[in-house]
TrEMBL record:
Belongs to the glycosyl hydrolase 1 family. It comes from the Bacteria. Gene3D superfamilies: Glycosidases. This is Beta-glucosidase. It catalyses: Hydrolysis of terminal, non-reducing beta-D-glucosyl residues with release of beta-D-glucose.
Length: 448
């Protein structure tokens, strides 16, 4: 009996990204991207892993799509590698790159699987990084050129488009903390990068509208429900600041057309506020059809005099965690969805990523009994269900991830997939969680 039935047209899917699964890093005319470069520098990535081969999805996409079909998964979110299309980032087009993605999209559609494409999932062509990357306004225009070609080539086939994945991670991890490509450690640069990414987002949405295409377009943000460690005034302020830093900076710009006043004041005092115009904010505020959210965990924060630049630090609580060290906190997904619904005019929401890394083992029968992942997924879907019952316009859920894959700085040490990948043989093993998710999709809901 289906105890928690989702709306009839609810989108059930899985998600991946190009650099994390494709491999073929230098095949068929693809240009170098910043993750090819970043992973080639010893010390950046766990055991110096890289995406040169990854899951070899570039060559194995048909058998992987057959797994999607076997599991009854009808929606698949993936990203296009910009440097496969424009090896130099702009100008000369690599037809083999276009042909690959056309084969991939047609193979999905042939199996009744709807594609959802992320245009930018962190893999900037290295040639563009060499002219300043996202700090350079020219890259904004080159992104529009890339998007326009993708809309012309695939706009009639693809119903869902996502301009950017997690601009906060791109700007902060890549340009403030330096733990992601291109490895810069400068908050002022990070916020300038965030602004130009948002500008490129708005320009591409406006372009999509002008082409009278029939699909829907949005952006994906990684968001977290922020809790203060105590009710002290300082900790409560720390939570408000971290919410502004991670969530409201992007949400307010995109959905309200202005950066939050409290954060503009703080960043100005810290001399890290980027330059921007009213026209910029108008472009960023271009209407989107849906907001994509990636939720993994909550953030519990406290005031910390020594924490530059925000005087906020995260607590590491002694609660159950995933292999990423992230607390398992499903209620945070409900809180986030309710807050978004209340504070951003009930916008349509897609959960474009939710999932968990665990240290999966293949047992003596050649199976992966990942009950811990099923429990994580079950508890988060229950919170999603509660949010829908309480009025949130949640339209779909893309599980992260379809395949075990390259988890950025963690390399292949973290397994998020519902399908196990043996990287030595490229053998796929469907985990128990995949069969469980297949039943959720078949029942359009969760049975007790
Ligand atoms: C110097 C301190 O550094 C701390 C690391 O801080 C983070 C924060 C956030 C993440 C993170 C990873 N993911 C999963 C990905 N989402 C997109 C898709 O590509 C998945 O692979 N989401 N957020 C990692 C690390």
């Amino acid at each position: 009996m289906v105890k928690y039935k989702f709306p009839d047209d609810f989108i059930w899917g899985v998600a991946t990204s190009a650099y994390q699964i494709e491999g073929a890093y230098n095949k068929d005319g693809k240009g170098e991207n910043i993750w090819d470069r970043f992973t080639s520098i010893p010390g950046n990535i766990y055991k110096n892993h890289n995406g040169n081969v990854a899951c070899d999805h570039y060559h194995l996409y048909q058998s992987d799509i057959n797994i999607l079909k076997e599991l009854g998964i009808k929606n698949y979110r993936f990203s296009i590698s910009w440097a496969r299309i424009f090896p130099d980032g702009y100008g000369k087009v690599n037809q083999k790159g276009i042909e690959y993605y056309r084969r991939l999209i047609n193979a999905l559609l042939d199996k009744g699987i709807q594609p959802a494409i992320t245009l930018y999932h962190w893999d900037l062509p290295q040639e563009l990084q060499d002219i300043g990357g996202w700090t350079n306004k020219k890259v904004v225009d080159y992104f529009v050129e890339y998007a326009e070609l993708m809309f012309k080539e695939f706009g009639d086939l693809v119903p869902i488009w996502i301009t950017h994945n997690e601009p906060w991670v791109v700007s902060i991890l890549g340009h403030a903390w330096g733990v992601h490509a291109p490895g810069i450690k400068d908050y002022k640069i990070a916020l300038k990068v965030a602004h130009n990414i948002l500008l490129s987002h708005g320009k591409v949405v406006k372009l999509y509208r002008s082409m009278s295409l029939k699909g829907k377009i949005g952006i994906t943000l990684n968001l977290s429900s922020i809790h203060s460690a105590t009710d002290s005034e300082k900790d409560l302020l720390a939570a408000k600041i971290y919410d502004g830093f991670m969530n409201r900076w992007f949400l307010d710009a995109i959905l309200k057309g202005s950066y939050p006043e409290d954060m503009k004041k703080l960043y100005n005092e810290l001399n890290i506020l980027p330059q921007f115009s009213d026209d910029d904010m108008k472009i960023i505020n271009e209407r989107i059809d849906f907001l994509g959210i990636n939720y993994y965990t909550r953030s519990v924060v406290k005031y910390d005099e020594n924490a530059y630049p925000l005087k906020v630090s995260m607590l590491d609580l002694d609660n159950p965690k995933t292999d990423m060290g992230w607390e398992i906190y499903p209620k945070g997904l409900y809180e986030l969805l309710i807050n978004l619904h209340k504070n951003y005019d009930g916008i349509d929401i897609l959960i474009t990523e939710n999932g968990a890394a665990f240290n999966d083992i293949v047992n003596y029968k050649g199976k992966v009994v990942d009950d811990y992942r099923i429990d994580y997924l079950y508890r988060h879907l229950l919170e999603a269900y509660r949010a829908i019952c309480d009025g949130v316009n949640l339209k779909g859920y893309y599980l992260w991830s379809f395949l075990d894959n390259f988890e950025w700085a963690e390399g292949y040490s973290k397994r998020f997939g519902i399908v196990f990948v043996d990287y030595n043989t490229q053998k796929r093993i469907i985990k128990d969680s995949a069969y469980w998710y297949s039943d959720v999709i078949k029942n359009n809901g969760i049975t007790e």
